[in-house]
């Protein structure tokens, strides 16, 4: 049997898909003949390609450690990124390296795993190949798609340059530069109206990312920047958090939303609910008839699935791939989807886009691949909620653990502990812990560098 004719069975829904069956044998010669990157495995050893080294992909790869399979993880970034702390890079609390780690380094001890840097453009499910944007291709027997989500501007893609989203380190560094350059510009600006525009910061979207970002900008302006400027007082900055729905943190219980709103207000954030952005230009934004001039706009509102290029797979409106209980795509039992890219039924809706859910799905997909290889029946995925947390600033957070709902200092300590625990790598944990302790006692934000903005004047965005 060639390496393209691996026998496997899937059991959870009674599917008996024989990868070495008619379709695979048809493709057999094709697979043997084509020289494909990362697919030069041992004959008879199944090739598992994982797209994405985020929470789901990384845990899928680790779940396959020790399995007789040639695992190839491909990611367009060379690093795993801890997204829950990305807003801290955007607001100068942490450095990029504190929340990222090379994927190659993380998987260095896993002998059956190869890491490839490359962007997947599309999946040819018929030929069982992953096509890279540079023209390369990876053949697979099993595919785990774990490429997460990106930002959606709800059909207004032209707003993306004016109001960057927050999904990778480039976004975070761009936002950080814009925030700092706005204060620098205001310090030099003679015209009162233009200065006001520079000192106005708008965060669009009242979910956890928006709440955390708005709270952090407010803290920067009130605490970290105090006494540093001579002509402006950064504490007079206007920080608006806009939410289209009727409350911030809509996925949390209403009482925690109310407490989060109260904490934001205490920090000086102007929280506006029922406020939908209807227009945007170089000088500011439009909310219906109302005009707000603002130099800095951060988009924390919409999410869209990141990989579009897979034909005939059913999707949700935001582009997530609908999967069956075993996490495979209907009609393609050899393709699993995990993490933010997957739409998995749960409690009358879908499993939420959270890191613990992605980790659970990544592990589960790997488990089903292992079961297939061993000839065992697949298992259905069951999401176990670990609760939800959001921080609003120094010593303020909300936490929802089902029947237990907390806020304030205790919730903040829980938030700190959980994030330190889930960060990958001892070095990162130690550095982040030190930075937080330093910031707590000194109010300082240690990563206030403007880089990558050469040629752009203060206040330019
Ligand atoms: C700013 C922010 C804050 C968040 N805060 C929290 C929080 O506090 N708590 C929480 O539980 N969740 C939080 N989340 C959600 C959580 O981070 C996601 O649910 C989780 O990251 C999903 O994991 P994933 O593996 O599906 O995707 P990701 O972690 O996004 O990983 C996807 C990977 O795929 C790669 N990739 C994408 N497209 C391609 C391609 N075409 N080719 C190759 N590689 C590709 C990417 O480079 C990336 O490494 C936050 C998300 C964001 C954006």
Descriptive notes:
The chain has 461 residues and is an alpha/beta fold. It has two domains: 22-76 and 118-148 and 306-374, FAD/NAD(P)-binding domain (3-Layer(bba) Sandwich), CATH 3.50.50.60; 154-302 and 394-442, FAD/NAD(P)-binding domain. It contains eleven helices and 27 strands. The strands form nine sheets. It has a six-stranded mixed β-sheet with strand order 5-2-1-9-21-20, covered by helices on one side. It has a four-stranded parallel β-sheet with strand order 13-12-11-17. Strands 6-7-8 form a three-stranded antiparallel β-sheet, with no helix packed on it. Strand 20 (328-329) and strand 21 form a beta hairpin. The radius of gyration is 24 Å and the shape is elongated. Residues 1-36 have low confidence and may be disordered. Flavin-adenine dinucleotide (FAD) binds next to helix 2, strand 2, helix 3, helix 7 and helix 9.
Number of helices: 11
State the end-to-end CA separation: 59 Å
Q: Could you say how many structural domains there are in total?
A: 2
Which ligands accompany this protein? Answer: flavin-adenine dinucleotide
Q: What general form does the structure show?
A: elongated
What gyration radius follows from the Cα positions, in whole Å? 24 Å
Q: Helicity level, as a percent range?
A: 25-40%
Largest sheet: 6 strands, mixed
Might you state the CATH topology name of the largest domain?
Answer: FAD/NAD(P)-binding domain
Give the overall pLDDT as a whole number.
Answer: 88
Q: CATH class of the largest domain, please?
A: Alpha Beta
Number of strands: 27
What is the SS-derived class? alpha/beta
Strand order, main sheet: write it out.
Answer: 5-2-1-9-21-20
Oligomer: single chain
Second-tier CATH architecture of the largest domain: 3-Layer(bba) Sandwich
